[in-house]
């Protein structure tokens, strides 16, 4: 995925100054540009960067850019341009850009610029679904509130803003809150939304299995549940990146938490069979500790 974020901080400019030819002013906050060699397409997002600009002007990355500049490059810029041709509401385009701008501020300028593309695509499709009275609910919204609290809080405000600004054209259903949380989280972690959804499915599969082994329901609102989920997500991430951990407590864990270690090994068989994820002993040792805490703190 190709993107960058540049911003000022304490008078320092973080990228070398570059010049681009404007080929289209999409709105006051968005420019479609070519680089100097006219080989690559870019979409730049920034407050007011399109004001009084016109086709053929030169856009310069400089210190006049306030706070931040988000950019989509190459294939993603082309996809965004094509998406704009499919979206009939300019209001929706503007509202999504404002949400992304606010998200980037709220999360310390760590938002992936692709959120402009993915969120607009999702909400445009959601609008079409609602016209046909098709509502899709995300079933694990309560869990998201505890696992991703910052993303959840921001998404609640974003949904309120979205509903307010889009009246009377459409009133987005409250069911969109869960999907907003997932999109914001994916943009923060520089992941595809589909990968975030897959991780949620894996977590749900693992928790269901553990509940069957415990023969009781696990409280999703505890810190121990949140820690288990985040550890499992990081373990999956490390596996995919080929990162290995050393667990100096492994032998002690095997000895003290025999039943929980056996459960972690059974979980790994499920992960390997269903999702092609094979965690090593060190990861299973850490997972065992979290399973132990789930079991004993759940009482």
TrEMBL record:
UniProt keywords, alphabetically: Repeat
Which parts form a coiled-coil structure per UniProt?
Answer: none
PRD domain location = 87-193, 194-299
Q: Which GO terms describe its biological process?
A: regulation of DNA-templated transcription
Report if keyword Metal-binding is assigned: no
Does the keyword Repeat feature in the UniProt annotation?
Answer: yes
* Gene Ontology MF annotations: RNA binding
Q: Write down the PANTHER family for this protein, in alphabetical order.
A: CRYPTIC BETA-GLUCOSIDE BGL OPERON ANTITERMINATOR, PROTEIN GLCT
According to UniProt, the name of this protein is: PRD domain-containing protein
Upper lineage? Bacteria, Bacillati, Bacillota, Negativicutes, Selenomonadales
């Amino acid at each position: 995925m190709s993107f960058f974020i540049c911003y000022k901080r304490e008078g320092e400019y973080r990228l070398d100054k570059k010049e681009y030819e404007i080929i289209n002013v999409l709105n006051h906050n968005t420019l479609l540009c070519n680089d100097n060699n006219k080989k690559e397409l870019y979409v730049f997002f920034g407050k007011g960067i399109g004001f009084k600009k016109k086709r053929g002007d030169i856009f310069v990355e400089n210190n006049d850019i306030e706070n931040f500049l988000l950019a989509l490059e190459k294939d993603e810029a082309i996809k965004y341009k094509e998406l704009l041709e499919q979206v009939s509401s300019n209001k929706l385009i503007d509202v999504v850009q404002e949400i992304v701008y606010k998200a980037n501020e709220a999360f310390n300028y760590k938002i992936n610029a692709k959120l402009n593309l993915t969120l607009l695509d999702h909400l445009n499709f959601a609008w079409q679904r609602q016209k046909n009275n098709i509502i899709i609910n995300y079933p694990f919204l309560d869990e998201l509130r505890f696992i991703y609290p910052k993303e959840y809080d921001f998404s609640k405000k974003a949904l309120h803003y979205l509903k307010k600004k889009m009246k009377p054209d459409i009133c987005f259903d409250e069911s969109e809150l869960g999907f907003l949380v997932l999109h914001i989280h994916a943009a923060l972690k520089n992941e595809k939304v589909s990968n975030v959804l897959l991780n949620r499915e894996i977590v749900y599969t693992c928790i269901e299995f553990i509940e069957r082994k415990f023969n009781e329901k696990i409280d999703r609102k505890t810190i121990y549940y949140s820690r288990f989920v985040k550890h499992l997500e990081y373990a999956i991430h490390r596996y995919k990146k080929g990162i290995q951990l050393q667990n100096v407590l492994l032998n002690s864990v095997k000895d003290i938490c025999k039943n929980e270690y056996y459960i972690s090994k059974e979980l790994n068989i499920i992960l390997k069979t269903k999702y092609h994820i094979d965690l090593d002993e060190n990861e299973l040792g850490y997972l065992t500790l979290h399973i132990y805490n789930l079991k004993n703190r759940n009482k």
